[in-house]
Prior knowledge:
Layout: H1 7-25, H2 34-45, E1 55-60, H3 65-73, E2 97-106, H4 114-123, E3 127-128, H5 131-140, H6 142-146, E4 151-152, E5 160-162, E6 165-174, E7 177-184, E8 194-205
Parallel strand pairs: 4-8
Antiparallel strand pairs: 1-2, 2-8, 3-8, 4-6, 5-6, 6-7
Helix pairs in contact: 3-5
Amino acid sequence: MTTIVKGDLYESIDGKLHEIKRQVRQKGGYPFDPMLLDNALQALTEGNFDAQSAFPTTYDQSRGLRKLIELAVGPDNRGNINVDITQERFSLAGTCIRTVNLRVVPFLSNIETGEYAADRLTAAGRILADTGDLAGFQHDHPKEVEKYGRVIALAKNARMVSDGLVYVPFASVSGAFRNFGLNHFRGQRNFGCGILVRCESVGTQSL
């Protein structure tokens, strides 16, 4: 599968490549580890995007979705959990202790909806994270969540239909403030937000 890169995305990629070359060529020397750069670029040229940073995340599904979200936001933010996010509407993958490698990928632009991003990433072979993954990620890696306006789960079992509209869960962090709410899947623009994806499953542990 090939994709013609154009417009804002082309300019963004081209700018990043020029910045890397500028850093490598500067008289004062490259400011980071050049061997790590070489290894990362080699992986990217081979299409191995999962070689980028992945964050191991572990959560106990037997505790139920509500408890997982409460643990993720902390006791002072339980009022910031959308009451429509229930396990009946957003199912978990099972009842075991689950460990997954997760990372956040950005939306392409300020015009990309969740629906378009889900189709794009699925076509590229990415595995979309679900609501349990999102709660575990917010709990284990709040600093990563804080880098984005919102981190959104787009898996099929993370979609709720209500009055003809489709909603997906998001997590946000700003200092001590944490939120776990719902985003519009089709209509809402998501500039500055990220999509949670699975790199690969590390394993599950039976209780």
